[in-house]
Amino acid sequence: MHAIEKLLAARAGREKVTAGEIVNCEVDIAGINDLYLQTVHSFYEMGGKKVCRPERVMMFFDHYAPCATITQAENHKQFRNFCSEQGIENLFDIDQGVCHQILADKGFVHPGEIVVVSDSHTTTHGAFGAFGTGVGATDLATILITGKLWFMVPEIFRINLVGKLRPGVYAKDVILHIIGDLGADYGVYKAVEFVGPLLKDLSISERMCLCNMSTELGCKTSYIQPDETTFAYLDSEVKRPFTIYETDADFVCAAEFTYDVSALAPQVAAPSSVDNVSDLSAFAGTPVNQAYLGSCTGGRLEDFAVAARILAGKKISPSTRMVVVPASKKVMTEAMDAGYIKVLLEAGATITTPGCAACLGVHQGMLAAGETCISSTNRNFPGRMGHVDAKIFLSSPAAVAASALMGEIADPADFL
Fold first, then answer.
1. Which end of the chain is more exposed for a tag (fewer CB within 10 A), N or C?
2. Which of 100, 137, 132 is nearest to 114 (CA)?
3. Helices 70-86 + 38-45 axis angle, to 10
4. What is the pLDDT of residues 233-264, one digit of tens each?
């Protein structure tokens, strides 16, 4: 069996599972974000009285942080009341940031566990060797009541990453290139495992980026086998014992792809599909009205570090506004301590509350008709960050910073 299959088998109380089987599994972490008040309604509609294992339930106020409408404020009020009533102590309010980064920051995600959040980018937690997946309100309510949820054991394909990244090229470029090559629907209800020597060079932050955007391949979940990098990150944050599962030597993946990244150039996903990917050079010089640095994909400390390196002592273009959104309170605090926030502010950037902000097209960086944005986020569909006639290019955080500086899409290697 694959490590993912062993993980699911263990949580289902089974000796063995195979792709295509339906299994009912114990869920280790259940997370609800503030888009999904319906989860609470469904809990009661389904006869729920008391939340099963409230200590394993997390509530995140990240998409509406802080609230921009009365409806959002009412939603938060009802969530707070529910947490108080049900004894859910892990309520992360509007100052804490994006659910996935909070889970990582606070050590709630461990190898060999099942993490289910009402957010499609829960695949992020494959970076820790966990089975992370997103579900809707009814499924989350089922977990609240029973502590379990059904899964179909996914078919598993493998992506082998070899070579060394050139200066100015990052994990975001790698995953964009893969999505452009395989297509946005290749991985529908499949699991992807990232392997290969490149992983040794990638930090947890970069691994989280890879796994985060596996959602844009359609994947149900992602996986990276835990190693020294994983354990070094977890050492100070582990909340409970965990199990490491190993893939059997004779396991055969449904498919395997090898990408040599040595010659890979900076990439962009052009409007209006995540798999509309080209070398950044094809769009170099395209004017941008907004440069957006943030989200669960590109709002971590390393992302701020490279942006500060590019913008130190300089000013962003007067024709471009730069919006910077830390992925979490911890990221913001560490970026302040390192001086990155000061550098970005002095360059002319606007810093907002940790959270999702304009990534979901609700507030804090909306686009007007005809405007163009280059963003470190994960989706560029029409209307994703504002008006349906706005254009969004996805890129690495370094390319976002370089483009903010120049006022047009620019190669970050030129500034590194």
1. C
2. 132
3. 50
4. 987 666 678 899 999 999 999 999 999 999 99
pLDDT at 147 exceeding the cut of 80: yes
Q: Which CATH architecture has domain 3-13+21-258?
A: 2-Layer Sandwich (3.30)
Mean pLDDT of 19-38: 97
Q: At what angle do helices 301-311 and 329-338 cross, to 10 degrees?
A: 40
pLDDT in tens, 370-392: 999 999 999 999 999 999 999 99
| Cα separation, 187 vs 110, whole angstroms | 24
Query: Which secondary structure element, helix H or strand E, spans residue 297, and what is its range?
Result: helix 295-298
Whether this model's pTM surpasses 0.85: yes
| Nearest CA among 310, 290, 311, 307 for reference residue 299 | 307
Dist CA 224 CA 158 (whole Å): 10
Q: For the chain, how far is it from start to end, CA to CA, in angstroms?
A: 44
Average pLDDT, the chain: 97
CATH superfamily of 267-411: Aconitase, domain 3 (3.30.499.10)
DSSP string, 76-134: HHHHHHHHHHHT---EE-TTSB-HHHHHHHTT---TT-EEEESSGGGGGGGGGT-EEEE
